[in-house]
């Protein structure tokens, strides 16, 4: 009993969404009507309705009445099944030759199938379908009991002598019951299987939506984490330059009467430091406009940091890799250009290399990796670029979340730079980031 309850989902409260009557239903009903009329006319022409006293238009009306139910089968599944069961009984009593036609048998099957496939309540659908099944089997038994079914069969036979293992009459009764049970039970089980398939699709869709929502939450969390790190870097930049300005201003105030030249030098340092602070703040503030709203409730607990690594720390970062042979090269158009990179730019390049090398160690079969820093101070578009290239393939069983690369892209976007991440045409993987040295945030 528990197995049947599980199969028919009697404890499941889910209701299959029922669509309104649309073009698809009307087209299906029209097709059933056309095919049914055509097959009935062919059967009538072949003499299958010999003995039917009703005029031919009544036969067509019977078919039309069944086709209308097909249009309503999804919108009113249980009511349609009851209606078609009554249609089958009345037609079978008045015009059994018409009821037995294939076109109408298909319609009756579809009606019972739809009750189980589209019924809103599993218990109601099963109760109605089971009642129809019991009624139809009782009707078949009643026909045999009063002799009409047997009389029709015997009237078509020249002899009643059986040629098989069973007597003719018991064989006929048994075969009739088997066919009817297979017909009605098949419709019920088929409809329930269709309902369970719809239920499974709905569950899979819910799971997919949940996974997508979780992935979006992780993506937002990664963005918030990265922006919080940038916010701390902004704090470092402002704190450093304001401290320099404060020291230079204090010195200029003390010596401006005694040493005008030293005062001029201090004021020049203040001007340079303030300009650099404004430039660096512009490159960072664009990504922090909504940081308070996004960071609320994240529960991040990050340690304070007063200084951050930069481009000058890249050689140590590259050299500390274990199990990976690494090389580091610097290409400068002017000597010492790498050491003169602004703090936020140097930090972003450092974090890019750090994340790229970590990904190589975790997810790649590479044995070698090369890091190249390029700095161009001259020309109309000065830039700093870092490129990390390895010689491996993705390691089986390691498919990272992609949040690290998302963090790289977020950093690069804060500088209005360009990022290129992906497999190389030959072999290996490349992470390349180019950041402008001036006008990163625009004027």
Automatic annotation (TrEMBL):
Pfam families, alphabetized: HATPase_c, HisKA_3
Superkingdom, taxonomy of origin: Bacteria
Organism, scientific name: Nocardioides aestuarii
Domain Histidine kinase/HSP90-like ATPase: 348-438
GO MF annotation terms: kinase activity
EC numbers: 2.7.13.3
Transmembrane portions of the chain: 54-72, 79-96, 102-119, 126-145, 165-191
InterPro entries given in the database record: HATPase_C_sf (IPR036890), HATPase_dom (IPR003594), Sensor_HK_TwoCompSys (IPR050482), Sig_transdc_His_kin_sub3_dim/P (IPR011712)
UniProt key word Phosphoprotein: yes
PANTHER family on file: NITRATE/NITRITE SENSOR PROTEIN NARX-RELATED, NITRATE_NITRITE SENSOR PROTEIN NARQ
First-tier enzyme category under EC: transferase
Keywords: ATP-binding, Kinase, Membrane, Nucleotide-binding, Phosphoprotein, Transferase, Transmembrane, Transmembrane helix, Two-component regulatory system
Signal transduction histidine kinase subgroup 3 dimerisation and phosphoacceptor domain: residues covered: 226-290
Catalytic activity: ATP + protein L-histidine = ADP + protein N-phospho-L-histidine
Name of the protein in question: histidine kinase
